[in-house]
Design brief:
Blueprint (H helix, E strand, L loop, with lengths): L5 H5 L4 H10 L1 E5 L3 H13 L3 E6 L16 H5 L4 H12 L4 E6 L7 H5 L4 E4 L4 H14 L2 E8 L2 E7 L7 H4 L12 H4 L3 H19 L9 E6 L4 E6 L20 H4 L2 E4 L4 E4 L9 H8 L4 E4 L3 E6 L2 E6 L4 E4 L4 H11 L3
Parallel strand pairs: 1-2, 1-4, 2-3, 4-5
Antiparallel strand pairs: 5-6, 6-7, 7-8, 9-10, 10-14, 11-12, 12-13, 13-14
Bound molecules: zinc ion (ZN).
């Protein structure tokens, strides 16, 4: 252990005491795409003793440009990302425990996934899951580190429940479906992933080793292409926050979270966004036109990509044909419509 972690132990703020804390630590990484894979590799190399990785998706060739844990053979085999990640991470560090969970993270499983962990890292690609993580972490008093990256821009914030503002203190309402760019509509370059993950995982190392004074305490925004780095200082938690002040954990509530349904016998899934929207279909059609065949009328837009046919209505409800798997359908929805 001493040789493997020797350079990290030499780093004053960690030292051997910090290294021992890392070895005893348990971390949940939600989502194992670009950000999640980068977090997982850093924490595996750093010697975090237990890492649980949850992801609902499979490796595809379009992932390889930025999702650094995966290889061509993972894409050819269509391996679940959590499994492919675990295989690779076990080669990097066989001294730690890695648990791969292939699942859609939702209200029914989030609290079980976090309950035995010291810290949660956001590696997701959608706000729905982030608000769910926020509810679960505030309720269970577990710190989590928000992170997102699209195009050449990224944002991150560290949440220590009841001490610092939570996600909902800052972003009170979830953005309307279809209004936020996603990696599948706006693209993304690899360096912004590494930059945001570098900040998130450094914050993780600080928390796990007890270096709380070193946390950045800000909403940090980085654009690696525009050379723009900024920190918006955080104040106190919002005294009216639904989540951390009023303890109204609505994303953990099964009734409001129930938003997808299998359409029986049609090989299709209906997705109903938690918050109805009034989508601008011509604008969405313009965004999606390079990704597949798009047809649009006054009432709906239809995108065909390979076997999948995505139909989006103006209220942001969608029907995804070509699958009877809710997790796969939610993934398609998050990719092309967003949120
Ligand atoms: Zn709050």
């Amino acid at each position: 252990m001493t040789e493997r972690y020797s350079r990290q132990i030499l780093f004053d703020s960690i030292g051997s005491a910090g290294q021992e804390k890392l070895v005893m630590s348990r971390v949940l990484i939600v989502g194992c795409g670009a950000l999640g894979a980068a977090h997982a590799e850093t924490l595996t190399r750093a010697g975090v003793g237990f890492i649980r990785i949850v992801d609902r998706d499979f490796v595809e060739f379009s992932n390889l440009q930025r999702q650094t844990l995966f290889s061509e053979s993972d894409a050819l085999e269509k391996l679940p990302k959590a499994i492919a990640a675990k295989n690779r991470l076990a080669e990097i560090n066989s001294e730690i425990e890695i648990e791969a969970v292939v699942a859609d993270v939702n209200f029914s499983n989030i609290e079980t996934l976090i309950e035995d962990c010291d810290l949660v890292l956001d590696g997701t690609d959608n706000f729905q899951t982030r608000y769910l993580i926020n509810d679960a972490c505030v309720k269970n008093n577990i710190s989590w580190i928000y992170g997102a990256a699209v195009s050449s821009y990224g944002v991150t914030m560290t949440i220590q429940p009841n001490q610092t503002p939570c996600l909902r203190c800052i972003f009170e309402e979830m953005p309307n479906a279809g209004t936020s760019p996603t990696c599948d509509t706006s693209g993304v370059i690899q360096p912004i992933i590494n930059s945001i993950s570098a900040v998130q995982t450094t914050e993780a190392l600080k928390i796990l080793t007890g270096n709380f004074d070193a946390l950045h305490n800000s909403l940090m925004q980085i654009d690696v292409w525009q050379n723009d780095w900024r920190k918006i200082k955080l104040g106190a938690p919002n005294a009216d926050c639904q989540t951390c002040a009023r303890k109204n954990f609505e994303f953990l509530d099964a009734e409001s979270a129930e938003f997808s349904a299998v359409l029986c016998g049609r090989d299709a899934i209906q997705i109903v966004p938690p918050k109805p929207a009034n989508l601008d279909l011509p604008t969405l059609a313009e965004t999606l036109k390079n990704l597949g065949a798009v047809k649009q009328n006054e009432y709906l837009l239809r995108l065909t990509v390979g076997e999948i046919e995505l139909t989006v209505f103006r209220d942001a409800r969608a029907i995804i044909r070509g699958t009877d798997d809710v997790a796969a359908a939610r993934s398609v929805y998050a990719k092309y419509v967003g949120v």
